[in-house]
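Example for reference:
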Amino acid sequence: MVRSPKVYTVTSLTLMLAVLLYIFNWLSVYWLKYPFLYCWAEPVVAPTYFAFSNLASVVILAGLFWCGMRKQWIQFVSGAAILTLVLGAPRFADVAFKMGGVCGG
């Protein structure tokens, strides 16, 4: 019996691309001290994050209030975790993508 060739889904290809980019970024920092992912994405991502993070925080806090009033504790804890992730995103990006490298000069 002949097996059909492996068909990759969009999700698996996206995940493989993300892992490869992260590995290349790590190698770039290791050898050249230049985190290209951080340096290339920061001018676009930072203004977008700062523009929408306050709105996202207000929406999440309203959802937390709503869940607390309705005694939906699992959703309340989930919302609190998401709020923590939104507020901690810039520090995570520094640690995960900059990796001690320097952008330019």
Notes: The chain has a mean pLDDT of 86. The two ends are 60 Å apart (CA to CA).
